[in-house]
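Need Dihydrodipicolinate synthase family protein's 3D structure for a figure. Predict it.
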Amino acid sequence: MHRFDTSAKGVYLITVTPFTDSGALDLASTDRMVDFCLERGVTGLTILGIMGEATKLTAEESRTFTRQVVQRVQGRVPIVVGVSSPGFAAMGELTKAVMDLGASGVMVAPPSTMRTDDQIVSYFDMVGETLGAVPWCLQDHPVATGVQMSASVELRIMKNAPHCVMLKHEDWPGLNKLSAIRAASDRGDVRRVSILTGNGGGLFLPEELSRGADGAMTGFAYPEMMVDVVAAHARGDVERAHDVFDAYLPLAKYEQQAGIGLAVRKHLLHQRGAIASPFIRKPGPKLSAQDVADLDRLVRRQDQRLRELG
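Structure prediction for Dihydrodipicolinate synthase family protein:
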């Protein structure tokens, strides 16, 4: 099994959860989706995240889905599982279950009830106690959680938590926060942890890489975009990274619309053969005929631009 630790880099793709047209877990499509992601070069998978409809799954479904992903991956890449919960009993139970199934680590975001810096730090101290030696990722996603964590708060959390190996940076705007955290580790104020970014399906990925991010942890129906951008940046070809990113940007931006983003992603993954159905469990958005027409146009233009880039 691949280790999940502070050296993590590349693209940890946030996956969707495939359902049948009737809303049941689609385990055959889960296998297809895993193969689709690995064929496009991702270096890790993150499941049961916000865009994975985790809150719409039962506890048993969460375990079943995790088991299917682990079995299909067969240890080829790390698997990180979202286990965020206001209650530590549920978090601890799910963490034990997924780690026993073969997950590489877990991801935790603060609950929306957190209001002060001290509350946030105390909460994550208890996360550390609950998870024990399990490696975990600190998710900073204020758009979803409503919780604002400053760079100083995140540094306090990291100092207190030896098994926090990664920051999933999703604050927006957040480039200066990313720079501050990386500068602190460069000075030796805090140990260096992996920083993977998730802003809007990678809408700021080239800039985040230049600020010291180690890669991306987010979702997009074209994961090869993030793989190629990260690879180009890593070999020092920053202009190529920007050129590739720019070719995908119109579609990535469309996919990040509030409200319909998940429907867009699942529609595109369905079109690309990664999943058998674009079904979203209630409550969830639906695309209009005009939405679909927009996407067809964007995909055509994207394909043309990629051919021009070579």
